[in-house]
Amino acid sequence: MADKFDFDLFVIGGGSGGVRAARMAAGTGARVAIVEEYRYGGTCVIRGCVPKKLFSYAAHYHEDFEDAAGFGWTVEGARFDWRRFMANKNAEIERLEGIYQRLLEDAGVEIRRGHARLMDAHRVEVDARAFSAETILIATGGHPVFPPGHGWEFSISSNEVFELDTLPERAVVYGGGYIAVEFASIFNALGARVTEVYRGAQILRGFDDDVRNTLAGELVKKGIDLRVETTIDHIEKTAAGLALRLSDGEVLETDLVLAATGRRPNTGNLGLDTAGVEVNERGAVKVDAYSRTTQPNIYALGDVTDRMALTPVAIAEAMAFVDTVYRGNPRSMDHGDVPSAVFGQPPVATVGLSEHEAREAYAAVDVYRSTFRPLRHTLTGRDELSMMKLIVARASQKVVGAHMVGADAPEIIQGMAVAIKAGATKQVFDATVGIHPTAAEEFVTMREPLPEPDAKAAE
Questions:
Q1: Domain carrying residue 454
Q2: pLDDT in tens, 125-173
Q3: CATH code: domain of residue 192
Q4: Active site residues
């Protein structure tokens, strides 16, 4: 490695992808530095999936206490303390941030804090001090964006939602994606009166239609006021809170508005142009299959590339980068059949193709679907349905998609993802013995495909 540089690798961004790349590269003997402007751990650990999952756990206890009565339990005096929960959450996030920093230190990575800006292809400026590196990795993540219009300065984003001093009595969530669905569910379960407003025809655009429709129905049953094909045109601050004018002319009064309307890559003020690093129309860093940018010695991974904004994907891209640059094993990260989950109430998990995608990709597909009331709720009396769905390419009988709405969906679909990644056929699923009684056994006991859409229409 070239001694003419201060470092062999300089990583900009201390999130999951950047930290993994720095640690693993240092493990090969490379001289590595990493810089982070905010807190080590990135979006996922500090203000994303980890605290969100803790919020989701807290919210689930509301129904758990209610459901206990059906099983003979009496739970008296149960109440939720927002401040105590937030203090515990903050302590856990601080613990995790400390772990991230210790892992870097133990690997021999030089840790820095501050804003980094590229000076050219090999030099990085951090708060007026310059460093040189043979290879530079950009892993700066993304940030939430607010919609255009009047009054959005009175709303909050997914960054601020994790730092609220109090739980709102009334909340409006604007959006229909992961974050919107999750926080509509969380606020609702914790006792707020929740309205979710989405401009599209149905929430969770890009997911399988049966998933979208099933979840929407369950959210409404749980008390969320779901408004689709509607926008927020105007927000005003009032003595009683906030007043929202909707596109249909209605005025909603609320205490809090969460704008969950998308994210953009963090590429501003990085000096990308001076280093010859190109971005696309969304501001994302352009990369090839090996995460190399338009400047050959500069790489980028994770949300800043806008390929697939999931933490495990950023980590997998980091490992592919280290193998390619430092281990003599050039390889790209396989972005196919990546599982994902939405921690709503109930949760959603999916892997592979939706029915619509499969019908576009294959000449013919078989679709298997099961909708049922979970065994648990035969005693709780709760009106909640689970839905499971398999998509099969008819000619090869390969299972190309698995989808679930219902309790434990993320845990179950993780196992389904292994089978689909391995190329399992429907016959392999059929030959697998289920664990009884579980919800998961439905995935290996569905035998009859649904009628073709044209056949259903003719009935």
A1: 346-458
A2: 999 999 999 999 999 999 999 998 899 999 999 999 999 999 999 999 9
A3: 3.50.50.60
A4: 436
